[in-house]
Amino acid sequence: MNRNMRLFAFLLAAVAASSPDGALKATAAPVVPLPDPVYEIRMEATYDSEEFLIQGIERLRWKNTSSVPIHDLWFHHYLNAFANNRSTFMQESGGRLRGDSFDKKRWGWIEASSIRLADGTDLKAVEEFRAPDDGNEEDRTAVRYPLPQPLLPGEWIEVTLDFESKLPTIFARTGAQGDYVLAGQWFPKIAVFEDAGDRGRPSAGWNCHQFHAHSEFFADFGSYDVTLTLPEKYRGKIGATGELVESIDGESADGEGTVTVRFVQKGVHDFAWTADPKFLVFEDQLDPVADVPREQVRKIAGLLGVEESELGLPPTRITLFLQPHHRPQKDSYITATKAALRGLGLRLAPYPYTTITVVDPAEGARGSGGMEYPTFITGGTDVLLNLPVFRRVPVANSVTVHEFGHQYFQGMIASNEFEESWIDEGINTYYEMTVMDEAFPKMTLGGVELTGMRRMALIGSDPRDPIVTPAWGYYSAGSYGASSYSRPALMLGQLERYLGPEVFARAMRDFFLEYRFHHPSTEDFERSINRSTGQDLGWFFRQALRSSRTLDYSIRTLESDKVLKDRGVFWKDGERLELSDKEDQEEEEDEASDVYRSTVVAFREGSFRHPVTVEFRFEDGEVLRRDWDGQRRWRRWTFTRPSKLQSAQVDPDEVLQLEKNRLNNGRRIEGRKAPTMKILGQMMFWLQNLLQATALIG
Amino acid sequence: MFDWIRGGLATGRRHRRLVWVVYLASLIPALLWACAAFPILSGAFGDRPFGDGLLGAGSFQVWTEYAASDDFQLGPLAALIPLLLGVAWLLQILVSAGCMNVLLNGDSGVEGSFVVGVRRFGGRFLRSALAFGLMLVPVVIIIGAGSRLGRNWAESSGNGYLRLGFFVASLAVAFFLFVLVDLAYDLSRLSAVAWDGRQTFRGYFRALMAVLRQPRKLLGMYLGFVGLIASTVLVYQLLRGSFAAASAFGIFFAFLLQQLSMWLRSYFQVSLLAGEVSGYRALGSSKWCRGHGFSESSEPSAEIPTAVPTSEVLLS
Ligand SMILES: [Zn+2]
After folding, report:
1. Residue A221 gets which letter from DSSP?
2. Which end is more exposed in chain B, N or C (fewer Cβ atoms within 10 Å of the end residue's Cβ)?
3. Rg (CA), chain A
4. Domain span at B141
5. Domain for residue B48, yes or no?
6. Mutate which of A679, A686, A690 to disrupt the B interface (most B C-beta within 10 Å)?
7. What is this structure's pTM?
8. How much is the ipTM here?
């Protein structure tokens, strides 16, 4: 409660301080109340940087928010994924993830030496590791403690855990490398108890999956108050989830200098921290006036159909922990963070926390890059991007924008990443593309914007899995990636074009506001979008989200010929009349040349059915459009017009972002050589150069 | 160094026929490949409006969509390119034999002609190429191991600049070593042509020693020509970026520009050989490819012209 007051005071002060002429009154941000905590964690932990070991005490108060008595407590011991080569994570990944391989010289693990209830009962004796997903007995990432008596609905329980965590060499988002630490999933983490009906559950129960290679996390909202003690070399170089409220120098038992820092944050579902003596630390702030162009506010207000004054953003403190060798990229990190704060804040709702911490991973610690934790994200860049030549390569910016976007999708829309990874990754990828194209329109790869790049992940291949698939159930890592990121992002892009940008933007905002600080499922998403748009989009979601259908329409045939003039016997005004070839050839040709019959067949090549528009262009410049519901396998159109048909095109406006093959979308009657000649000339030139290069060694 | 480059360029200008040979040696295989690719590409883009995107700014997108689609049929032709490279390399070895004969022995009369050069020295040059290939192995190993060590060290130090430094340095060292090895390769072959030597293996290592004794001027010349060759591509890119080539005229103009760039590249390639001839003469026109026993008293297989402007420069 008092923390909330402090947040409010901070916002007020910041708003007042940066309001020179009252212009800001129009954009004053509403203060968003953070959710009531399902649990409160007070934790003290000490880090030994020689042994990469964390010793901690976790004091957890947890509430039964369900409608049934609870007989046990479940925790995640995520670090045990890295304990040995028999864990489910290691078996699934083979020790390789995102181009990084696990260092078997240092295994990572976590152990709770005791778990005591308020009355002193130690549950350690009844501890049992469970493998609900695959029955793997060697997996110790999900643990269950039966309670001596049930916890009734609305009751709180207090447990105190003594734990020890060994950080592996940086791998799969967490670990330590030299002095650099990125501690994620580092403490015993209470699982989510779901009531009947939550996310479509038939009965109440724990949702506690094991740690899988292609899966992230799922947790409830809580309050964190964490005190970390590190060797003194880390003074001023420690970042974490939440606000830094204290930093005290001290001394360890063996006389070494230490620094103790305390971070607190309400309304978040995880806590991560980082430290590196090499960090350069920069503080910045999103200035609601200077950093938010009116033009953008106007545009988005128009899109959402709200007053501009409703779209105010609060100031947000940005703390950047930067590696010295990436010093020239400082502004790039800050600019991207601000672009994302604006882009998502205006479209959905203001970022509700006071601070965002951006971490630049150490050299060789790429495994900890590109990750999101509440109010805390890690970037991904390379020293090569220091060079001005690469300034316009959108890689590092888009990682920052993407990870910040997770503050919304996963941070606030706390979906279950184990079971429905598309909700956070896919929706967030859509916003990443939107923000990138909006804020950095000149950043392209070979002239291709991010949307185009995302298409590359799925064009040309049939989907192997429905988008909605448990993270460990996908055919391959590639299928998990395409189904969680690109496909759902393009699916949303398609919906946006199908519904129109306004309807779509409003529906997405409604969904966000409805489920902010909750755990929506795919059904919740569908229901919310249907309600906002007033349409039943079930036909679309069933195919796009719950099937592996391929979307592909094409023009198969195209003909346009002169209509032959009347020949044969006809009856006219009661008279029989025989029309036959005249002797005079020239006259006949004149008569036959003014009408063309044109026939076009469009084909549904895939099993995904979607309405499409077909465009017909005629030589006299006339352009006709016809709508087709796309249900049957094909559709034929015939036109009898005074002009010859030039070309036909399905989906001329590129509504269908999920199209497998755009090449076959159109056809024209007269072939054209120019495109082929141009590309062939270029290919030949580069081939000549390649062949000529052998002259240097020939 | 600059005099060798200037001399090389002048000699290149005098031997335009060689330039045409070098130009055609890469044009013809490329043209054959393009002819094979034409029906495939025009089948994909000819009657499809989507292909029009190739004429505009979004050509990369069109190309990637095409390359990923079921309509992409260029796979087998693309797989041919490594083979084509191998053939081109063998071809270039023979072309070098002809060129070196012309440049050293003059293209007047039968003795110094291109064809005689190819016939007489082609086989020996192929053996030289083997020695050259062998020498590349340690170079590759040294560079590979060095950059790996450097990378690991840089990563453990946590400093990206170190990794970048190592990357650039290993590229530079690799290039430097390559140039030394390549210069020895060319000089030993020149010696074989000049003295009708047959011991190409021995000649190669002797030439390498000679290069290592006086590397600076040779390296400078070589780098100068590599710079000129690279500039043909860079200047092309610069000019090409200035117009869209969407019309038939534009496409034709781009084609002319491409072929002009290739012709110039071939010209610089021949000039590099001519520059190396100057370098070889300046090193004393040694008989590296002949055994000591009988080479000492032998005459060069053809008169070395005395009018070479640079032959004495390096001997001081
Ligand atoms: Zn993500």
Report:
1. -
2. C
3. 31
4. 2-38+74-282
5. no
6. A679
7. 0.87
8. 0.89
